[in-house]
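Folds abound. A case:
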Amino acid sequence: MKILSSVVLFMLFAISAFGQLNVPPIELKERTLANGMRVVSHRDATSPTVSIHVWYDVGGKNDPPGKSGFAHMFEHMMFKATKNMPNEKMDRLTEDVGGFNNASTWPDFTNYFEVVPSNYLEVLLWAESDRMVNLNVDDASFNSERDVVKEEYRQGILANPYGRFYWLMDELSFQKHPYKRGVIGNLEELSAATRADAEKFYKDFYRPDNAVLIVVGDFDQKQFDGWVDKYFGSIKKPSGNIPRVTVEEPEWTTERRYNETGPIVPFPATALLYRAPRTTDADIPALRIASAIMSGGESSRLYQSLVRDQQIAQDANFDLELNTEGGRMGFVAIGSDKASSEALEKALLAELKNIQDKGVTATELEKAKNGAVAGAIRMRETNDGKANAIERSVAYLGDAKAVNNEVAKLQAVTAADVQRVMKKYFKDNNRVVIFYNQAKQAEGKGDDK
C-alpha cells in the first residue's frame, strides 16, 4: 500500500476544503549555449543532492529504416568507454559515492540521468559532456550491447506469454509512422545493424544542439553556470542538419481487425485501440482523468465490471500511450478461464458506451483528479522528481516552464470534458481490434503415442 507524505495529504485536504490548490511554481533558469544546447536549472537546497538529466531528441521513431531497436541499443552503448573513461565508469562515478544512474529510450527521446551528493556535480557534468562527444563506438562495445538488447527482446517479448501481444499493439495500429516499430526492436533487424550504423547514429543525434541539460538540486548558480560553460560550452556545434521524421500517420477512418496467436497464451486477450492526439493537445488532461476513472485501481470501472463482477478478466486497463506526434490509446484486457476474446471485446465496448452515454459521477471525477494531482505533487518532492517533471515538459510540451501548469490543467477538467473526449476519440470507425489467443498445435504434434 502506498503511504502518502504529509505534504501530499495536506494538499489533498486543501483541495477538499477549498476546492482549488495553488502549487508553488518551480523557479527555473534557462539559457541556450552558443552551440545550441539548452540548459534548464532549478536550485533546491532541501537535501545535499543534485539530479543531472541529459535529454536527447532521439528515440525509437528515429531508428534507421529496417533496423528497429537501434536507439535502444545505442542507449546501452553510451555507458561504455569513451576517450577519457573506461567501460562502466559512470557506475563508479555515481554508485561508489552513494548515488545512482540510469537511462531510458522512448519513442520520442532518450534520457540519461544521475543523482549524486551535490559536491560531485562537477565531475558528472564533465562525464556527461565527455560521452556526448568522445564515445568509443568500437566493435566490442557494439556487439556486446546488441547481444544485451537481443536478450531483452527474448525475455520481454518471446518468453512473456503476452509479450508479443503488447508488441503487436504498435505494429498493427500504426499504418505508416515509425511508431509502429516499437522501441525494443526485433531480433532480425537488430542483427542487420552494423557498427557503421552506430557511428552515423552517434554523429547524427548525439550533439549539443539536440540535447537539453536539466539540473536540479543543491548548487551555487554562478559556479554551476561556469562548469556548464567549461564542459559543454567548449563543444562545437556540428555542421549539417539533424535528421527528423517526416512521415505523417494517415487518419484512422475504418475499423481494422486482427486475429493473432502466440505459442504460450494461457488465456485470451483483447485490445481495442484508437489514435491519441499529440501531447500538446488541450484534450490530454481530460484523457488522463478518463484513464484514471476507467482503470485507476480496484475501484475503477473496468476492474469492477470485468474482473470483479463478470469475472471474465484478470486484468483490464485503459491504456494511454502518449507520443509527441500522436500516440495510441484504448482498452486492453487479459482474460480469465471464463472468457473469450469476443466476450472481452463486448464487455469493454459496453463500458465505453456507458461513459459516453452517461458520463461520470462527481465522486469519480473528484477521486481521479485528486489522484492525478497527488501524483504530480509527489513527483516534486525530491530533486530527481522535479528534474523528471521538467524533463517531461521539455519532451512532450516543448517547454520546461509548462511543468508549472500541470496541476491547474488537471484541476480544470470537468465531467463534461471527460464525456466529450470519450465521444470525440472513441468511435466505431476508427478502432483497431486485436484478438490474441493460443496458437493451435500442428496435427499430431504433442500427442501421446
The longest strand covers residues 313-321.
